[in-house]
Specification:
The complex is a heterodimer of chains A (198) and B (578).
Chain A lengths: L5 H35 L5 H8 L5 H23 L14 H4 L4 H25 L6 H7 L1 H19 L5 H31 L1
Chain B lengths: L2 E6 H12 L23 E6 L2 H5 L7 E2 L7 E4 L9 H9 L13 H13 L1 H10 L8 H9 L5 H4 L4 H14 L4 H7 L8 H4 L3 E7 L4 H16 L5 E7 L11 H16 L9 E6 H7 L3 H16 L13 H9 L7 H9 L5 E10 L5 H9 L24 E7 L4 H12 L6 E6 L5 E9 L15 H18 L1 H5 L6 H12 L4 H14 L20 H30 L5
Parallel strand pairs in B: 1-2, 1-5, 2-4, 3-4, 5-6, 6-7, 7-8, 9-10
Antiparallel strand pairs in B: 8-11, 9-11
Helix pairs in contact in B: 1-14, 3-5, 4-11, 6-11, 11-12, 12-19, 17-18, 19-22
The chains are: A mainly alpha (198), B alpha/beta (578).
């Protein structure tokens, strides 16, 4: 059995980061629930807790956050599923009708934003509203769309030069993608870390 | 509670800045929120200033012109008065007051007199009403109706003036709102909201009590609000200026006199006529802890955060609603006989609230250390600036404690910690729990009237009696030594000078009243300002029966206090408590 490709290992690493974010979120809820149950003096339902924890982060931040999550999905799909380099059977080039069209890439991006992107946009900012997001963290979040656009441009370049392979572009695309993911998950991870410190 | 924070005067404007800082991202190219900026506790605010030059020389251009719909905005107090105003000409010729004065030269009596005339002079009233379209007062009505009212829930419930609508339409034109559907999507908080949830349910004035614009405008604006809505909650946060000469070289005596006149007026307006509570901070304490004014302003903002936090503990949601908070502030003890209570109710004066604030990392320290950080350790009366007390006071003399706390704490434990430190009974401690931000826990304890009940307390450095005794004594000295300076202000007409003389020097005037206040402070009597005084109108009179009631209530408090201290001393001697 041949060892897994280098890109697959990095994909696993990225999934671990994502799972870490999910674990942080769940852990945060469990910790907060336990603190409040111990001290509130009444039974606190999930709905009440959600209502109590909800915090506004501002329209500008929400816009950037939703845009960033949508771009993250697009950047991920472009990086892993644009060329047959990683998943030879499942990629953009295997749908010639779209791939050869003038707006093929845009259609792929739009499809990603519309289906999984809109779901992410609905749930992730809401989940984020239960956390304290400092102004510094908000300013950091401005980096996410910039990094993701760099990642998308790298993927587009890789798609354009295929079958030539340029590992520098792929690596740059991946690094910017994972950095953006860490920035977007920072409120969850930091929130859980703060709760753990108590 | 969602206050409309009104910074008045230069210091008020600086204090207001951190409250109105935008917590949202600044995208530079477009603002999706328009004028609806994200602030801590969703507060809104406005800066009222009389000196046009001060507004124009703002280095950072933080405040825009609220008349042009800019937010956060400033409003020039006399912005509605034209240069050739007939009302102003009448005022100048008859009294020597100028509605368009650029600042008030640390003379609290100037604005006090100016506003009283509007209530008393029928010719002036008619002139003003005719010139300013029904306004009773060209300044306070303008500031209330154009500046503050549109930010409050009153503007959505009652009649909205034509000028209000002009301002709000100017605002909406500038903010270029997003299509409603997109706006709702980006701002989930507005999905189920009506106009009221975006507006403020009370007013919090921020001002320095140094005798300028801030000092003089709180009462007149409160009166204007009361005409519209008698029970609308109004609170004021006053900063007593530091000792010594300040930057514009105003002597301590002059500033103390201005502060005393302002405090006297604020604290002798009966319930329903003025403010509902005065939060007092001492600039001297803040100066000892911080090097510059900007750090002091930051501290004030941090200290008020537990009060403004809208993330209430589950189950504690409604209790910090502004009207409920107002009721708690006015609440009296029921132990007095009915007749006494009735008499006092009629003359109820707003309470002094002393803020005590402390914060600690949530992984370091416990509830006891948090409460002790705010109120100081037991027995430590004079710890100026070393603990969280932002005005000198003895917490054990407080009538009540309002505890705003952020962090995960049990209600009974909070009450116990405060009871241990203050000696208050459980029923006199009201706790408002907030969730906070997970990084630190902090507490703001507002002590209601923490003074009185002890003879000679004014000699103990660090008590409220000591601080007030100091500024009142300075003020009396200033009045006695500066008659010419007080009465010969360049513009005063003979009529005004005569009334000013009566106000300051006649028997029963402010000097006499301040001498009485000194005696009250020395004997531990509460309150030490007892009678509303006017420059032009007739001052309030205290009947003999009411005097008697106040003295008897005071005696009861004195006995309670002495007994408690004696019991504590005995228990400490026997080693039962430490």
């Amino acid at each position: 059995m041949s060892p897994p490709r280098y890109e697959i290992l990095l994909l696993i690493a990225m999934l671990i980061v994502l799972i870490l974010g999910i674990i942080s979120h769940v852990g945060y809820w469990i910790r907060i629930n336990s603190h409040i149950s111990k001290t509130a003096g009444i039974d606190v339902g999930k709905q009440d807790l959600r209502k109590a924890l909800h915090m506004h982060h501002g329209s500008n931040f929400n816009t950037i956050y939703i845009t960033s999550w949508s771009l993250l999905l697009v950047a991920f799909i472009y990086l892993y599923f644009m060329t047959p380099q990683i998943f030879s059977g499942l990629n953009y080039f295997s749908i010639p009708n779209i791939a050869s069209g003038s707006f093929g890439l845009a259609a792929l991006g739009a499809a990603v934003i519309l289906i999984p992107g809109s779901l992410a946009a609905l749930f992730i900012p809401r989940a984020c509203s239960y956390y304290t997001v400092t102004r510094r963290m908000k300013r950091m979040s401005l980096l996410a769309p910039v990094l993701l656009i760099i990642s998308i441009f790298c993927s587009i370049n890789l798609g354009s030069i295929y079958p030539t392979i340029d590992s520098l572009y792929w690596n740059l695309g991946f690094v910017t993608l994972i950095l953006a993911l860490v920035i977007l998950l920072a409120p969850f991870i930091m929130g859980f870390a703060e709760e753990m410190r108590m | 509670m969602k206050p409309c924070i009104v910074g008045i005067g230069g210091a008020g404007g600086s204090m207001l800045k951190p409250f109105l800082q935008n917590l949202d991202l600044n995208l530079m190219i477009h603002d999706f929120a328009g004028n609806d900026r994200l602030t801590y506790g969703d507060v809104k605010g406005i800066w009222l200033e009389s000196q046009t030059a001060d507004v124009e020389k703002q280095k950072d251009h933080y405040y825009g012109n609220s008349i042009k719909g800019q937010y956060p905005g400033y409003l020039i107090c006399h912005g509605g008065v034209n240069e050739d105003s007939s009302t102003n000409t009448f005022l100048k010729n008859k009294y020597g007051f100028d509605l368009k004065a650029q600042g008030y030269d640390r003379r609290a009596e100037y604005l006090k007199g100016l506003f009283e005339i509007f209530e008393l002079d029928e010719n002036l009233k008619r002139l003003c009403s005719h010139e300013f379209g029904g306004y009773d007062n060209a300044l306070s009505d303008y500031m209330w109706k154009i500046g503050i009212r549109p930010l409050t829930i009153i503007s959505t419930g009652g009649s909205t003036s034509v000028k209000d609508e002009t301002v709000s339409s100017a605002k909406s034109k500038r903010s270029k709102p997003l299509p409603e559907l997109l706006r709702c999507f980006l701002k989930p908080r507005n999905l189920n909201s009506d106009q009221n949830t975006k507006r403020c349910d009370c007013i919090l004035f921020l001002a320095s009590l140094g005798g300028g614009t801030g000092t003089g405008f709180i009462n007149p604006i409160s009166s204007a609000v009361r005409l519209d809505e008698p029970i609308f909650p109004i609170f004021a946060l006053g900063m007593l200026t530091e000792k010594g000469e300040d930057s514009p070289q105003t002597s301590e005596g002059q500033r103390d006199l201005a502060a005393v006149i302002a405090l006297y007026d604020l604290l002798t307006k009966e319930s329903g006529k003025g403010i509902d509570g005065l939060i007092l901070m001492d600039g001297q304490i803040l100066k000892e802890r911080f090097e510059n004014y900007s750090a002091m302003d930051g501290m004030i903002y941090e200290a008020m955060k537990p009060l403004l936090d809208i993330r209430n503990y589950p189950g504690d949601e409604q209790q910090d609603e502004a009207q409920a908070f107002r009721r708690v502030l006015w609440d009296r003890d029921a132990k007095n006989p009915m007749e006494q209570e009735d008499a006092i109710q009629k003359r109820l004066f707003p309470p002094v609230l002393i803020p005590c604030y402390y914060t600690q990392p949530d992984w370091n320290g416990d509830l006891k250390s948090l409460v002790e950080g705010a109120l100081g350790k037991k027995g430590h009366v004079s710890s100026l600036g070393l603990d969280g007390r932002l005005f000198p006071c003895d917490p054990e003399k407080a009538e009540r404690a309002l505890v705003f706390i952020r962090g995960f704490f049990e209600l009974t434990e909070i009450k116990k910690a405060v009871m241990d430190r203050t000696g208050l009974s459980e029923g006199k401690i009201k706790v408002y729990r907030k969730l906070g931000d997970s990084r630190s826990e902090d507490v703001l304890i507002l002590l209601r009237n923490p003074y009185g009940g002890e003879i000679g307390a004014h000699k103990d450095k660090g008590t409220l009696e000591w601080r007030f005794h100091d500024i009142i004594a300075e003020s009396i000295e200033y009045i006695e030594k500066n008659e010419m300076n007080i009465l010969s202000y360049h513009s005063y007409k003979p009529l005004t000078k005569e009334y000013m003389w009566k106000y300051f020097y006649q028997s029963g005037g402010i000097k006499d009243q301040l001498y009485k206040s000194l005696k009250y402070l020395e004997s531990g009597r509460k309150p030490f300002f007892c009678r509303e005084l006017r420059i032009f109108g007739e001052s309030a009179k205290l009947s003999q029966a009411e005097e008697q009631i106040m003295v008897s209530t005071n005696l009861e408090e004195q006995i309670t206090c002495i007994s408690r201290r004696e019991a504590e001393r005995l228990l400490m001697e026997k080693g039962i408590i430490h």
